[in-house]
């Protein structure tokens, strides 16, 4: 089992920055967190992948955040970070951390087994 806890969300004005964190724990955290991802969701919409960290350490981003968001990782703390710069009102969403990647597309929420409770990011214009 893996437990994921997100933190660091909040409210910021457009153009500002936030860093959100996801800390993993549990007996499976070493195995199931090699590949992780951040998704976001707004009411009435599907969960959308914004950034993925593959087991090889490669990162990839959705077109909507590329160049503004940056993943980093502290393995000693079992923590994945998402630095979000130049935030826009359309970045407003609940952000979720995902682990337990099962294969195929890393941008598909269906391919992750473990999820955190989410952290809210609100960007005002």
How would you describe this structure to a colleague?
It is built from 1 helix and 11 strands. By secondary structure, the chain is mainly beta. The strands form 2 sheets. Strands 2, 4, 5, 6, 9, 10 and 11 form a 7-stranded mixed sheet that branches. A 4-stranded antiparallel sheet has the order 1-3-8-7, with no helix packed on it. Strand 7 and strand 8 form a beta hairpin. The N and C termini lie far apart (40 Å). 33% of the residues are buried. The model has no long low-confidence stretch (mean pLDDT 95).
Which key features would you list for this structure?
125 residues, seven-stranded mixed β-sheet, four-stranded antiparallel β-sheet, 1 helix, 3% helix
Nutshell version of this structure?
The protein is mainly beta and 125 residues long. Helix content is 3%, strand content 50%.
Write the layout of secondary structure elements.
Blueprint: E1 3-7, E2 10-13, E3 18-25, H1 29-32, E4 36-41, E5 48-53, E6 59-61, E7 69-74, E8 79-84, E9 93-101, E10 112-115, E11 119-124
Parallel strand pairs: 2-11
Antiparallel strand pairs: 1-3, 3-8, 4-5, 4-9, 5-6, 7-8, 9-10, 9-11
Quick one: how many beta strands? 11
Low-confidence stretches: none
User: Distance N terminus to C terminus?
Assistant: 40 Å
Figure out the total of helices: 1
Largest sheet features: 7 strands, mixed
Order of helices and strands: EEEHEEEEEEEE
Percent strand: over 45%
What value does the Rg take, in angstroms?
Answer: 13 Å
Overall shape: globular
Helix content: under 10%
